[in-house]
Amino acid sequence: MLLLAGFTTAAPTFSIEKSCDSQEVNLFSLKDKKGGNIAEPGHFKYQVCGEEVSTAKIRDSCRTGESSVISLFQRNDSHASTFGEYRWDVCVDGFETSVNKTCETPIFSLHSKTDSHVAEPGHFKYQVCEEKETVDNISLEVSTDAETVYVDGEQTSGGKYNTLELSNPYISTESGLGIIGYGELSSMEYVEGSPDTLRAVQTRGSFLVSNTESYSEIEDEGSEINQRTFMDQVETNFAFSVPNVPLVRVTYDSPFDTKGFDDRLSGSLGLYVRRPYTNSSELEIGTR
Fold first, then answer.
1. Rounded to whole angstroms, how far apart are CA atoms 236 and 126?
2. pLDDT per residue over 192-215, tens digit each?
């Protein structure tokens, strides 16, 4: 059994933290959340972090396809401007910004539109806001020579389906090779040819690509897929059932001498560690 998840780009989100996590891109650093100069990432204490942002670079001019979030007079310890009048720009790919007094998704705030200190959203008068873009449709295709294809549990002879009309949005061969809806899907399609094509189209979310023993195993996970809990399971797959009681293995290196025990212990055994001098029970490992 093989399960793959392909994630499409979601709308960017932003935060100001002491460090960005591995899923975020660092736009620039901020001296003080309540207002101060800015610099390249890591120079100051606070980092302006963007999730679902593909790139962010400080350049002397933005490249084709990039847009400037803010411009800096110098790379470190600098005032900022929204007019691109300074030498350096924070260049990003995938979204654009505007300056307003209020907005739904502010990234940071400015005291003035030029020669300004920068602060967290809402602190200063002007908000630098993410401009929402029209999301492109993402298409995923699987080629197959299978003779039988199912959509939502019913055999299909070809055609395009509106996923809003499907109780369990998936398209799969009888052997379980297919695409499963796990996001904002707009359509699924079976195109007969040589080979045949299974296609799913969506704007946001995830594609699940299954390759299991039968399409019926996809049917069995229908409620978890529709409720978006399938990926939260202990065993995230279609081929093996989820255990009612997960197996937890614990290794404990005792600082005390446990004479009489082998190196490996198993079965219904309780191992107790006594607190020195008090002889009270402190820790139990195993089952009884």
1. 46
2. 888 889 998 887 667 888 888 888
